[in-house]
Amino acid sequence: MKKILVTGGAGFIGGNFVQYMVDKYPQYQICNLDLLTYAGDLTKHREIEKRDNYTFINMDIADRFSILDLFQEMQFDYVVHFAAESHVDRSITDPEIFIRTNVLGTQVLLDASKQNGIQKFVHVSTDEVYGELDFDPDTFFTEETPLQPNSPYSASKASSDLLVRAYFETYNLPVNITRCSNNYGPYHFPEKLIPLTISRLLNDQKVPVYGDGKNVRDWLHVYDHCRAIDLVLHKGESGEVYNIGGHNEKTNLEVVQTICSALSKSEKMIEFVTDRLGHDKRYAIDPAKLEGLGWKPLYDFETGIAQTVQWFLDNQEWWENIINGEYQAYFERHYTLK
């Protein structure tokens, strides 16, 4: 039985990937490693936590000795590395934790993988490492675009990307780097734009939009992202970078307006606020290289956002427990610390 270590599997994208892999590959042992910081939520895994092919490990990826011991004990075959501090606003106010987790933590995992003969290390990164694009609709990020990060968050991710590349070039560690556009979908933590908008509108609260709301993002449904990482894990050429985009460019204001319409809420609920420091104008990805492996997104934005809004309507207890902090007690009630 293949053993796959998924770091950050209690987060949004990593959590969806864990569920996807547990369901799709009953012959694989999926090991979910997460420190359970503020954004780590295990309640999303209630339906799989008793599956024979699922294991949860509470550990810090930057804890070198614990990680090395774990790798020697478990003898993983693959590593899919999601674990990261990822909220840009938090990186602006507290950059240090982003360096520790995203850079040092990645280096610890790379060392453990190198020492234990990992067959593939997939590092999940972000399009934000490329910096920003202008509003020319014919310009896109490709895998050859130079790295020009503009926030402490994206700088920490670019640094970890370069470490992954270095371990391939220096030690011949089999790696892939994936860089995705903005994700959305079920179990999205409520501090991010789409779930924040949904939860605030359902609570009849104003929705903050930075600046004039004209910053453009390419939106990727998290299920499409999971499919893409699965493909890269099994068929990606070692050492290669693969961009993952949804072909769904929208301004932030358009996204919020779409959600207002879906929930029959007035656009008077939108409140423009002072723009974020270093706010990149536009991200847009050309995923042609990945499409050459046989992947295409299944969700257009209109279908995906409608399903996402409905999911948040159907799972109001989940996001309310996130907002009020109840989710943080789940681990203590249902898992035994070793």
TrEMBL record:
NAD as UniProt keyword: yes
- What is the protein named? dTDP-glucose 4,6-dehydratase
Question: NAD(P)-binding domain location, by residue?
Answer: 5-308
Q: List the catalytic activities from the record.
A: dTDP-alpha-D-glucose = dTDP-4-dehydro-6-deoxy-alpha-D-glucose + H2O
Pfam families per record: GDP_Man_Dehyd
Q: Looking at the keywords, is NAD present?
A: yes
Lineage of origin: Bacteria, Bacillati, Bacillota, Bacilli, Bacillales
Q: Which UniProt keywords apply?
A: Lyase, NAD
What species does this protein belong to? Planococcus salinus
Q: SUPFAM superfamilies this protein is in?
A: NAD(P)-binding Rossmann-fold domains (SSF51735)
Q: What is an annotated GO biological process for this record, any one?
A: nucleotide-sugar metabolic process
Q: Name one GO molecular function term.
A: dTDP-glucose 4,6-dehydratase activity
Question: Which cofactors are named for this entry?
Answer: NAD(+)
E.C. number: 4.2.1.46
Task: Please state which protein family the record places this protein in.
Answer: Belongs to the NAD(P)-dependent epimerase/dehydratase family. dTDP-glucose dehydratase subfamily.
